[in-house]
Amino acid sequence: MKDFTTGNEAKHIFRFALPMLIGNVFQQLYNVVDSIIVGRYLGDKALAAVGASFPIIFMVIALIIGIGIGSSVVISQYFGAKDYDKVKRAADTTYIFLFFAGIVITIVGLLSGEYIFRLMRLPEEILPMAKTYLDIYMYGLILMFGFNSVSSILRGVGDSKTPLYFLIISTFLNIFLDILFVLGFKWGVAGAAWATVIAQAFSFVIAIIYLERLRHMLRITFKRLVFDWDIFKQSVRIGLPTGIQQTLVALGGMALMGIVNTFGTEVIAGFSAASRIDSLAVIPIMNFSASLSGFVGQNIGAGKIDRVKRGLWATIKMSVVFSIIISTIILIWGEKMMVVFTTNPKVVDIGYHYLMIVSIFYVAFAVMFCINGLLRGAGAAIIPMYITLLSLWIVRIPLAYLLSRTFGMGEAGIWWSIPLGWLMGAVASILYYRLGNWKDKSVVKPATTDDDGVATDMV
Question: Whole-model pTM?
Answer without folding.
Answer: 0.78
